Amino acid sequence: MTTQETTETATFNVGGKIYKVSRATLDKFPDTMLARMASKTWQENPEAAMFIERDSERFRFCLDYMRDGKVHLSPVVSKEALLADLQCFAFEDVKESDIDWSGN
User: Fold this and answer.
1) Which CATH number fits domain 8-101: 3.30.70.260, 3.30.710.10, 3.30.1490.10, 2.30.110.10?
2) What is the pLDDT of residues 21-73, one digit of tens each?
3) CA quadruple 47, 50, 51, 55: dihedral positive or negative?
4) Is the pTM of this model over 0.85?
5) Which of 23, 36, 42, 45 is least crowded, fewest Cβ atoms below 10 Å from its Cβ?
6) Measuring CA to CA, how many Å separate 14 from each of 52, 56, 96?
7) Are 34 and 21 in contact (CB under 8 A)?
8) Of the candidates 77, 78, 80, the residue with the CA atom closest to the CA atom of residue 94
9) Where are the domains of the chain?
């Protein structure tokens, strides 16, 4: 891993699945748990993956929210579960209308 890559991305191990997230994406939501975890204050080794004990499949929808400000869920993921994850990660002012659930 290069020094440049280390400073431009943060690595999260969410329930055993590895996600690399750009620091620019994290910087959009500086008050979230994810941004705080990836900060120099909390992260002693920027190359190490930070473990998060949450559902690894739902985490990708949290990243979608961070990138796009909206989420389009698959029928197998509930809106309530994603809202709980976003709340756990300390996202504020999430509107239910920003989460489109196509379940029946």
Assistant:
1) 3.30.710.10
2) 999 999 999 999 999 999 877 777 777 899 999 999 999 999 999 999 999 99
3) negative
4) no
5) 45
6) 5, 5, 24
7) yes
8) 80
9) 8-101
